[in-house]
Amino acid sequence: MLSAGVLALLLVGLMTGGARAAEDGPAVRVSEEQAGTGGTVTVSGTGWRADTLLMLLICGRADPSRGVVGGTNSCANADGRAVTTDAEGRFSRRLPVVEPPVPCPCVVHAATATGPKAQADTEFQVAGHAVEPLPAEPAGGRLSVLTDTTLDGSGGLLTWFGAPPARTLVFTVGNVGTEAVKDPVFELGASHGVFAPKWEEQQWQGTIRAGKKARIELPVELAAGAHGDYTVSLKYSGRILAEQPWDVGRPWGVTLFWVLVCVVVPAAVFRVGMAVVDRVAPKHRRPLRDRLRAPFPLRLPLPFPARLAGRRPGRTPSAPPSAPPSPAPSPSTTLPWFTPDSVPHTASGTAGGLSAPHEDPSTFPTFGKGPP
Question: What pLDDT is stored for residue 102 in this prediction?
């Protein structure tokens, strides 16, 4: 009975510890609090979402209570490591020790690379690296986001054809400090995938008194042709206040434009080529497009008399409308190279067109002499 009670207490303790870890949120720890450049440390974490991709970095000018003051620009990004949590939200990964681009105090920074944002820091000292105090926090007013951020607006016809997508980031902030904040300067950045956001400063005109709140609207614009999953981040005084996902649709108008270009341009070039061929072709020939549409006509040879009459095969000359039709030649018409007196005679005394003419010396003309 005693052992059963001990086991029950242990189970309750484990369950309570797991629930407390889940309530506390994601956490990260290192196997050693200090290491020199060139070494490695084991980084482990609990309380993260299951099957989530994380990025592990060594960052300078940071503190777990304030976070990374300079953002990821203060981290050794080139020597970071990626790790995926298991089904229970835990991970373990070895991380090389390198010097960050800014002085310490340093931390090991873990943050999600995809999906909803989550991050955690733990203290770590890079042996031999310079150490400087953190910049002082601005005295007086402090802003905090009180409501969820939203992206107002929608895309239009130009966005469908590749124009830069634009939205308005709307949120409500409250001044939790002791002094008023006048004309605060926010930083907006849009990140895509695992790439870090590019920050741009935007100043809001107005004054937020201590204990008061205000509704802020800041324009956000992406590059032309951007599409996919983006994350819009809001930062103030070096601290990230909120992050808002943005699913940007693909500009299908650009795709449609190129499809039409690939279809219309070849068709236009073909028609221009056909017009050029028809222009340079001989005039007595039919246009090439007509000869391509129908087969060539069958041309039969004409009889011999038609060729003697001077008619070309395939074409029949047409007489002018005003000229009367010429009479058909009779079979008895003499040929042009014969005269009535020189028609050849056969032995029977009849004319024959099939025998060669006989030469009669008495019929030869004489030149320069009188009669014999």
Answer: 92
pLDDT band for position 20 (50/70/90)? very low
CA 113 to chain centre: 24
Using DSSP, state whether 233 is helix, strand or coil.
Answer: strand
CB 89 within 8 A of CB 137: no
Please compute the mean of the pLDDT values over residues 54-60 and round it to a whole number.
94
Q: How many Å apart are CA 223 and CA 192, to the nearest integer?
A: 11
Locate the DSSP E strands across 78-184.
Answer: 81-84, 91-96, 106-112, 119-127, 143-145, 150-152, 166-175, 181-182
pTM passes above 0.85: no
The overall average pLDDT reported for the chain is 77
- Position with higher pLDDT, 21 vs 136: 136
Using CB atoms within 10 A of its CB, is residue 43 exposed (0-12), middle (13-18) or buried (19+)?
Answer: buried
Q: Extract the tokens encoding 23.
A: 């309530």
d(CA 230, CA 117): 12
Q: How far apart are the C-alpha atoms of 136 and 69, rounded to whole Å?
A: 11
